[in-house]
Amino acid sequence: MSTQEIEQLRERALRELAEATSQEALADWHARYLGRRGEVTQRLRQLGSLAPEERPAVGRALNELKQRLESAYEDRERQVRESELAERIAAETVDVTLPGRRPAIGTLHPVTQMIREVTDIFAHLGFQVVEGPEVEYGYYAFDALNIPPEHPARDVWDTIFIESEHKEIVLRPHTSPMQIRVMERRQPPVRVVVPGRCYRYEAVDATHEWHFHQIEGLAVDERITMADLKGTLAEFARQLFGRERRVRFRCDFFPFVEPGVDFAIDCMFCRGEGCRVCGGSGWIEILGAGMVHPQVLRNVGYDPERYTGWAFGMGVERLVMLKYGVPDIRYFYQGDLRFLAQFDRIPL
Description:
This protein has 348 residues and is an alpha+beta fold. The strands form two sheets. The protein has a seven-stranded mixed beta sheet with strand order 1-5-6-10-9-8-7, with helices on both faces. The protein has a three-stranded antiparallel beta sheet with strand order 2-4-3. The protein has two domains: 3-91; 110-343, BirA Bifunctional Protein, domain 2 (2-Layer Sandwich). 39% of the residues lie in helices and 20% in strands. The protein has helices spanning 3-19, 23-33, 39-45, 55-91, 110-124, 138-141, 177-185, 226-241, 294-299, 316-324, 337-340; strands at residues 128-129, 135-137, 160-162, 169-171, 190-199, 211-222, 247-252, 257-266, 283-292, 307-315. A hairpin with a 4-residue loop joins strand 7 and strand 8.
C-alpha cells in the first residue's frame, strides 16, 4: 500500500461525498469508507502486514485520511441537512393571499334528518313536537294503552325489562306511552307528534335492530273521525314521498286503537307494478294507525262519548330506507363515513 494509492482513495471518497445529496446517500458513503468494514478501516487493520520501515508513513497517511474524511463528512452532512430543511420549508410555505380552504363540516345523521323532515311536515299541519323518557313505567308502556299483563306484547322476548322491586320498568318498546302522558296533562284539543328511540329484544338483521326510532302521532278532539286520519296521513305521505303517491288503508289490529289500519303507499320504485322492494304487491306499508280505543281515553279521564281521536306510529329508519333505497338497517349504526356522507346536505 503506497501513499499514492491513499491519495487516490482520498480523491475518490471526497468526489463521491460531494455527489451525496440526501441523508440516505450520506449513510451509504459513511459505511463504505468509514464504517467497520469501510475501505479506510480495512486498510488501517492491514498495517501489521506491512514491512516495519513502511508502517510509520502509511499509518500517518491513513490516519490523516480518516480525519480528513470524517471532517468532510460532518460538513457535508450539515449542508445536506440544511438543504433538506430549506426544501421542506419551501414546500410547506402557505401563501396567505390565497383564499382559505373551507373545512369539512359534519352534518346530521340520516335518521335525525328524517325525524326533522317528518316533524316539520306535521308542524305545518298543526301538530306540536313533544318528547318523553326512554326508560318507562310498565303502566304507561302497556296498562294504560289497553295492553293487560297477560298480553303477548309484554313477553320478555319482545320487551327489555329493568329489574325493580317496586314498579315494572322497561326500556320503552314504542313511543306510544307519550300518548298517555300527554293526555294526562292536557285537555282536548290535543295534536302532538312524538319522535324518540325505542328498544326491543330482537335479533339484528337487514330489517331489524334492537334499538330504533319511531314517530308517534296523536290527535284528540270533538267530532274527530277516520276521515281526518286518512286525509292527514295522505297529505303527509305525499309531502314526504311525492305528490304523485297513491295511498291505501287496510284493516289491522293494535290494542290501543279501534278500528286499526295499516297505511301503505304505492311503490315508488316500480310505480305499483310489483318489484323486489314491495314483494311484488305494488304497495309498501309505512305505518300503523287507528282511532284511539275508548278505554284508552277513559284511562286518562277523557269522556269517550264526547271526545274521539286517532293515533299512528311509524319507524324512522324504515322511512329513510324507503325514500333513499337503503337495503340494510345496520348501515345506519356502523359509523361508516362513506355511507353517512351520502346524506350530507351541506356542500363541502
